[in-house]
Amino acid sequence: MSIFPKDSNMEIKVINDTDEVFKEYAIDLNTGKMIYKDGKNLIVTKDEALRVWIWKVLKTAKATYQAYDLDYGNELEKIIGNGYSKALAESELRRITKEAISYNKYIKDMQNFSVVLEGSKATITFTAITKYGEVNIIV
């Protein structure tokens, strides 16, 4: 379930039979660039890894890139700039966002969802309730 294609060497580390730790490559969420330490990709775990995964899934168009499962990504671009009323656009953005993040088994729910619409741009904020705690998201 990594942000990278299926044949990537990222794996979920199993500590014991009942406890898996979600991990992901670190990304600077302001620039979208990978973060390196000593020339190697930095790996983050738990909520920080989920923050990266959520950011990436909300920046990736669904069913567009063959490297990803058909369930990975979102359909947010179908809403913005299509003349929907503000209420309908917000409702659909919430539904699509929740659908996109629900693909990850470590994410339990989404709360405090809000959206600011400015022309053809939407800024989405919410709190993801995860297996590890709460993660505040701004995309």
Indicate the overall shape.
Answer: globular
Q: How much strand content do the residues show?
A: 25-35%
CATH architect. name: Roll
Percentage of helical residues? 10-25%
Taking the sheet with the most strands, its summary is: 3 strands, antiparallel
Mean pLDDT: 86
Broad CATH class: Alpha Beta
How many domains, in number, for the residues? Answer: 1
Order of helices and strands: EEEEEEHHEEE
Strand line-up of the largest beta sheet: 7-8-9
Q: How much is the radius of gyration in Å?
A: 16 Å
Query: If helices are DSSP runs of H or I spanning 4 or more residues, what is the number of helices?
Result: 2
Which stretches of 5+ consecutive residues score pLDDT under 50?
12-17
Q: Could you give the count of β-strands?
A: 9
Distance between the first and last residues' Cα:
20 Å
**Secondary structural class:** alpha+beta
CATH topology heading: Nuclear Transport Factor 2, Chain: A
Task: Describe this protein's structure.
With 139 residues, the protein is an alpha+beta fold. A hairpin with a 2-residue loop joins strand 7 and strand 8. Residues 12-17 have low confidence and may be disordered. It contains 2 helices and 9 strands; from the N terminus they run E-E-E-E-E-E-H-H-E-E-E.
